Amino acid sequence: MEYTVQKLGALAGISTRTLRYYDELGLLKPARINSSGYRIYGQTEVDRLQQILFYRELGLSLEGIKDIVTAPSFDGVQALKEHHHTLLQRRQQLDQLIANVELTLAHKEGRLTMSNEEKFAGFKQKLIDDNEQKYGQEIREKYGEETVEKSNRKLKNMTEEQFNALQQLEADMFESLEQAMEEGDSASGLAQKAADLHRQWLSFYWDSYTKEAHAFVAQMYVDDERFTAYYDKRRPGMAAFLRDAVHVYTGSKE
Prior knowledge:
This protein is mainly alpha-helical.
């Protein structure tokens, strides 16, 4: 079956403007242009659009998606398996949070008792799952299975006060980073304060801290677009600025 821009947009729930933009980027070209000058899409393009929308849901940039789906080695079936695995992880996270809300409601209504540790268990598990998804493979390959498992156990065993302190550290780090970026110097006092806050934040997760590991993670923030998107949504260029500040902090860069 073939589709015009209007029909494919209606099928996928996206605008015709978006489809035209995908064409301009070389991300999703039509199968052909008919005699009237209209873009015509076939089944191959429909399948690619589905993949593009899956990757968009996972937070990847259009340029990143283009690199993936246009690569000669791209395997559509394997990509779907990876999407399925990621979505199952998300569902598990939501199920955990829903269960936590239900337990809290029961506690508030007097139907059961709930410890303060239990109130935050779902959030801590979500942090573990998010971290695992983002850089679990890289850290396991570089530092080993035991290091990752120790980190996860450390997070699970956090007290309420420690968990709140973790959240506050991240907020303080972002605030310092934004102020330091105004100065534009990754070696400034504010930038180094942000790097130190980042070290403290990481130490909540890690069993032990090393400058090498700190510098490695900061570099990952730039190399991996998932990390870049997380920091740059605060302010464009934040991931690279933090990387530079950490490299100064750890002595990885003069």
